[in-house]
Amino acid sequence: MEALYSDIVVEVKDSRGKTLERVAPDEVGEFIIPNLLDSKYLVSVKYRGERFETKNFSQVMPATGEPLLFSFDGKNIVLIREEETDE
User: Fold this and answer.
1) Residue 29, burial from CB neighbour count under 10 angstroms (0-12, 13-18, 19+)
2) DSSP string of 35-78?
3) Fewer Cβ neighbours under 10 Å: the N or C end of the chain?
4) Which phi and psi angles does 82 have, rounded to 5°?
């Protein structure tokens, strides 16, 4: 999967359309975008490789402070909703 991650770019734009961060995941697919201060962001996850034909992910997301988890199913990059935990 490391080769897949090296072909992914995550971009975060603020509510005015200004790019705040553009990062690539590390070798296990994790990435961190610190210091998000607005209430909503446009998050885009794009595959730039040639090995797969995939639809990219792009969605306006609220700033929750929680990690966003994405998965690749072979055709699409999808957001995985966090599972509810019993506390």
Assistant:
1) middle
2) ---SSEEEEEEEE--SS---BPEEEEEE--SSPPEEEE-SSBEE
3) C
4) -65, 140
Is 68 contained in some domain? yes
pLDDT of the chain, 87 residues: tens digit per residue: 556 778 889 999 988 899 988 988 877 777 777 777 768 899 999 988 888 888 888 999 887 777 777 877 778 888 876 444 444
Full domain range(s) for residue 65: 2-80
Residue 86 domain flag: no
CB atoms within 10 A of CB 6: 13
Tally of structural domains, the chain:
1
Q: Is residue 87 part of a domain?
A: no
42: how many CB neighbours lie within 10 A of its CB?
16
2 neighbors 27 (Cβ within 8 angstroms): yes
Tokens linked to 76 = 């699409």
